[in-house]
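Hi everyone, sorry if this is the wrong subforum. Our group has a chain we'd like a structural model of before ordering constructs, and none of us has done structure prediction before. Sequence below.
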Amino acid sequence: MNGDAAHFFPIVLGHEFSGVIAGLGEGVTGLAVGQRATAAPLVPCMRCPDCQRGDYALCPDYRFIGSRVNGAFADYVAVPAMGVVTFGDTVPFEQAAFFEPATVALHGLLHAGFRPGGDVAVLGAGTVGLFALQWAKLLGARRAAAFDISRERLELALRLGADAAFDTSEASFLENAMCFTRGGGFGHVFETAGTNATMAMAFDLAAGRASVCFIGTAHADLKFPWKLFEKMNRKEFALTGSWMSYSAPFPGREWSWTAERFGDGGLAFDPSLVFRTFPMERAGEAFELFKTPGAVKGKILLVNPE
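Answer:
Right subforum, don't worry. Here is the predicted structure as tokens:
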């Protein structure tokens, strides 16, 4: 909106949302008016070879709610029934608006072949990073550590279950992190910030034969000194990327597991994940905040009266 990322104008943005089913299309079964629900924003074609394999995020002819078709910054949003995920009364709408980033985090762990029992490093304590940390603990990590430059985000990570938190603005953070693992490094490293600094950091923190997964989206050229990049060879770690959050049957276990863990409290929701809340009619004020670097610390919610 404020930059050049919108595919076209005019468009209604919004792909992380929750609400109540207000109406059903002809032939829709298994859903009911009045149910509390969210929806996967990806709308795959379901015809191409990638979709036929269940690799929906690789679909070359996809639509996406909030970027390629009108999204949820509105009173109503139309979504395909196949992507709708319902949730119970115990899950607040505010928490349910975090379905999508929670599934993105889980998809990264699953795609990277997460194995329980070892130490996990999560680089970036933003929304996706904090869910990645929680998923790692839920899926059996021995310990999980958060890395960030924000003291507030690191404190939040500790409240959400991190066993350690490292301020990467401190000169000794790498030494302290390696001491945390007794010098061995981390068996799983999940990068969620998409910055040069954190992506390079992953190479230093990885243990021998580790799994390193880049979940964060980079917005600038990546540069690795050859001695740092060589660590991938010397440590023989596996490096992979992770894109979106889908598996077969669509939208996948990422979404069903998130619904279960939101419902039973396994995935915790901290109110400080939300920076500010605006009524939908004041959405313009929210966009203005993003024009000041560093002004927004967390998610902004746009809400309609219930």
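For your construct planning: Residues 1-92+246-269 form a domain with the Quinone Oxidoreductase; Chain A, domain 1 fold (CATH 3.90.180.10). The chain has three domains: 1-92+246-269, 113-241, 273-306.
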